[in-house]
């Protein structure tokens, strides 16, 4: 279980991006994090990962997140990644094996086999020798998912993974993520396309400068909740926006 208690994220000592957020999330589900622009979706996951100034408590399976650091993956928004960094697709995915290596150990045959297997799962094995800067948005996002696979993560955070990618890559990625969830991996995805929530997620977290509501899609994805979070101009019909 991923448990968040009274999480606050405050920037510049006075800007509350997230206030008093509390959650209890079961393992092995895909959670969609939705909310209007600037409502704190990215700040929520960054606070949970201790990447930004925060107060509160976050535990996974009853222990501090620090105790699980080797098995936690975070995929930031593509705009936050330096695409000019001189690394091949293979080496980028191989980096996912580093957290589980011993001190001063280098990846060996087992790690390289795992890397190639992960690339095959996302259909990117033929691009293994390409520089990451040569890839399209969808191709690179697949590589980041492959790196997560190589890490053997128990908990995965993804920030807007479907923005600016092609339809085929989106299909491949969501298929792989659902397979990961079936294996007991817990996945949290910051997401903006409300038309996909029924197809993609087991449960939702609605963010509005804190956690406004969370639970099943049917419970959270209501006209009342959406209008309070997004404003009255949002169009809601038959449970969809």
If you had to describe this structure to a student in words, what would you say it looks like?
By secondary structure, this protein is of the alpha/beta class. It has a single domain, classed as 3-Layer(aba) Sandwich (Rossmann fold), CATH 3.40.50.300. The protein is built from 8 helices and 10 strands. A 6-stranded mixed beta sheet has the order 6-7-8-3-9-10, sandwiched between helices. It is globular and about 50 Å long. The two termini are 30 Å apart. GO terms for molecular function: ATP binding; ATP hydrolysis activity.
Quick description:
The chain has 241 residues and is α/β, with parallel strands linked by helices. 31% of the residues lie in helices and 25% in strands.
β-strand number: 10
CATH architecture classification: 3-Layer(aba) Sandwich
Shape: globular
Poorly predicted runs of 5 or more residues: none
Our count of domains comes out at 1
Strand proportion, as a percent range, falls in: 15-25%
> For the terminal residues, how far apart are their CA atoms?
30 Å
CATH class: Alpha Beta
CATH structural fold name: Rossmann fold
Radius of gyration: 18 Å
Q: Helicity level, as a percent range?
A: 25-40%
How many helices in DSSP terms?
8
CATH superfamily (homologous) name: P-loop containing nucleotide triphosphate hydrolases
Mean pLDDT over the full residue set: 92
Lateral arrangement of strands in the main beta sheet: 6-7-8-3-9-10
Main sheet, how many strands, which sense, barrel? 6 strands, mixed
Structure classification: alpha/beta
Q: What is the chain-wise order of helices and strands?
A: EEEHEEEHHHEHEHEEHH
